[in-house]
Amino acid sequence: MLLKGGIYVKYKLQGDYLTLIIDNDFHHKTIRDIFNYLHLSKKTIHLLKQDKNYTLNNQFVNDNHLLNKNDHLKIKAFNQESIDYVPQEYPLSIAYENDFILIVNKPINTTIYPETKKELNTLCNYVANYYLETNQYLLIRHIHRLDKDTTGLVLFCKCPLLQPILDNMMANKLIKRSYIAICKGIIDHDLTINRDIARDRHVNKMRITNKGLKAITEIKIIKHDKQKNYTVCKCDLKTGRKHQIRVHLASINHPLLSDPLYGNKSKLIDRLALHAYKLEFIHPVTKQQIIVKADLPQDMNFINIKKDWL
């Protein structure tokens, strides 16, 4: 995990309250501008005002009040919440955590969330248990998903005040997700696949179609093995469509190894050969550039690549 310097926003976290120390970006802006930056809903803003759950320099003021540099805006950011999934013990792999977010490394053969509240063996059950063990009484808020057989990094939001802006960042591709994919055959050059994707109405999968949603995947070749007939590549999502990497690679006749929907079983690996190995984004409060990486799972170590290639 790396933190690269950026424009740091000074803040304090005391109990349930977040204090933002106003910098040049919000000098002579209003409190409402801060709320809009956080993408808070009208209902949330209304409740903050109604309950006087924010103050400026220790006084409640209207949200059209102008801010000055070094003002202290204190906002209620957390609530005592009930954990909303059944906690289940599991040796959860924590890749990164601070007061606002949690990033975990999802294991093989694990769905993100259960279909019913009583279902077990999902990532949300494991995170619920971790919160309980660490005395964090929070709702489980996953910002994105991975397929059941895809391993790798998943971002959770711990702070209810920040979920809207993280959702917006994900929707607008301000959270960069990179994957290691092992595909069938030899791809000998980097490429960008720009092919629209839509759901196939006749089977439970996606397909390439001119009537679909825009989908762009950038592919960088890491290595290939001609003897075993596979290519290892890094895939960066420029859009976020369901099964995007799987569909795009299959569309150029290089499906992922052991992809049950778009390819065939491989002797090299027993499950979909896809690993979400990196998340990169600017933290919405601290303005730090956060880069988190996850090592390859054991069943992908046969590709024998150096860590510094990732």
In short:
With 310 residues, this protein is α+β, with helices and mostly antiparallel strands. It is built from five helices and 16 strands.
Q: Can you give a write-up of this model?
A:
This protein is of the alpha+beta class and 310 residues long. It has 3 domains: 66 residues, Roll (Structural Genomics Hypothetical 15.5 Kd Protein In mrcA-pckA Intergenic Region, Chain A); 94 residues, 2-Layer Sandwich (Pseudouridine synthase), CATH 3.30.2350.10; 100 residues, Pseudouridine synthase. The protein contains 5 helices and 16 strands. Strands 1, 6, 7, 8, 9, 10, 13, 14, 15 and 16 form a 10-stranded mixed beta sheet that branches. Strands 2-3-5-4 form a 4-stranded antiparallel beta sheet, with no helix packed on it. A two-stranded antiparallel ribbon has the order 11-12. The relative contact order is 0.15. The N terminus is likely disordered.
Q: Helix content range of the residues, please?
A: 10-25%
Question: CATH top level of the largest domain?
Answer: Alpha Beta
Which CATH architecture of the largest domain would you pick?
A: 2-Layer Sandwich
Distance between the termini: 13 Å
- Parts with pLDDT < 50 across at least 5 consecutive residues: 1-8
Overall structural domain count: 3
Q: Could you tell me the number of beta strands?
A: 16
- Name the CATH superfamily assignment of the largest domain: Pseudouridine synthase
The SS-based structural class is alpha+beta
Silhouette: elongated
Main beta sheet, described? 10 strands, mixed
- Element-level helix/strand string: EEEHHEEEEHEHEEEEEEHEE
Residue-averaged pLDDT: 93
Percent strand:
25-35%
Radius of gyration: 22 Å
CATH fold naming of the largest domain = Pseudouridine synthase
Count of alpha and pi helical runs:
5
Based on the structure, what is the oligomeric state of the protein chains?
single chain
